[in-house]
From TrEMBL:
<dbReference type="InterPro" id="IPR007546">
    <property type="entry name" value="DUF503"/>
</dbReference>
<dbReference type="InterPro" id="IPR036746">
    <property type="entry name" value="TT1725-like_sf"/>
</dbReference>
<protein>
    <recommendedName>
        <fullName>YlxP-like protein</fullName>
    </recommendedName>
</protein>
<dbReference type="Pfam" id="PF04456">
    <property type="entry name" value="DUF503"/>
</dbReference>
Length: 93
């Protein structure tokens, strides 16, 4: 069994309140959960207006399958949220 995790550090330049930030975070989380069947959670920077940290985790029987899902998730986020500045950290366990 292989576990893959991705941490997205988002900078949301147009967010002027926690409410605006939470709308963006909620959108990202819901789209990832429904499209890729992965676990998603906001794990850091919860009280900052223009910064969010979201973790995505997937599990599969082999490394190739985990890497494919992780790359699809990264490509989806980059393509669908171009206005966000994103740093990405990946790990396989």
């Amino acid at each position: 069994m292989i576990i893959g995790s991705i941490i997205f550090d988002f900078h949301i330049p147009y967010s002027n309140s926690l409410k605006e930030k939470r709308m963006v975070v909620r959108s990202v989380k819901e789209k990832l959960k429904s499209k890729f069947n992965v676990s998603v959670s906001e794990v850091g920077n919860q009280d900052l207006w223009q910064s969010a940290q979201i973790a995505v985790v997937t599990v599969a029987p082999d490394q190739k399958q985990v890497e494919k899902v992780m790359q699809n998730v990264i490509n989806f986020v980059e393509a669908n949220f171009p206005e966000l500045h994103i740093n990405i950290y990946k790990e396989l366990i």
